[in-house]
Amino acid sequence: xxxxxxxxxxxxxxxxxxxxxxxxxxxxxxxxxxxxxxxxxxxxxxxxxxxxxxxxxxxxxxxxxxxxxxxxxxxxxxxxxxxxxxxxxxxxxxxxxxxxxxxxxxxxxxxxxxxxxxxxxxxxxxxxxxxxxxxxxxxxxxxxxxxxxxxxxxxxxxxxxxxxxxxxxxxxxxxxxxxxxxxxxxxxxxxxxxxxxxxxxxxxxxxxxxxxxxxxxxxxxxxxxxxxxxxxxxxxxxxxxxxxxxxxxxxxxxxxxxxxxxxxxxxxxxxxxxxxxxxxxxxxxxxxxxxxxxxxxxxxxxxxxxxxxxxx
Length: 312
Known about the structure:
By secondary structure, the chain is α+β, with helices and mostly antiparallel strands. The chain has eight helices and eight strands, in the order H-H-E-H-E-E-E-H-E-E-H-E-H-H-E-H. The relative contact order is 0.13.
């Protein structure tokens, strides 16, 4: 019995790997597969989902050769859709008014660490224009302990505002997971073909496809790792500010009086500064005018004395 040529055995694996990679960043992979199914009926066709048509398990795959369909194992076949857990990314923005910024930031960091989280970044405003110090800290806390951490953070000061929003990435997460498993299966088949290949063209072709599939696997693995981290740890952006000093609080009577007094003082010093600038202009001009007048007066006196001598 003759063995199937390497090239013919590579074709279906290439198509399977293509399906695995096509939908990682977009949702049109299934339509592209169906188009290819109509093109390769003479040789090996493609591996494509047929659950909706055949009534099989979600994600079941069928390989077609010469009009005969044979099931190909698929990760989705043993994973019913209704067993999927929702994959949610939660982000919280919170602003607190606290007595001491440094103390509040230290407590916020401690709360995150005790919950099993970590600190993403910390910043402080040491020279505020209105006299109230402020700071910001980004916390990463375990998703299951987010509510507990938020409750402890609210106790650090007076809550000014809080915004919570979520992003459902369930479809992206499971779609990428399934395609990653398909790509890994394709890579194993390419590796098996590479061990069997004897001719240089066959080796080159298999190595090229193996490299491409490996790059797709690395990209999908990185994407899943980032998603998993964002799902496992909620992001809490906490801003803390100290109370505005009464003389800087423009909503109070004393604050308005202080503002008016500062305005008066500023106007006084602005006037003094204007006078100094004017003196810087007037004095040089006055000196020039005085020198010109003195020169003319001296000349006229000398001329008058000369005329008097001539007349005598």
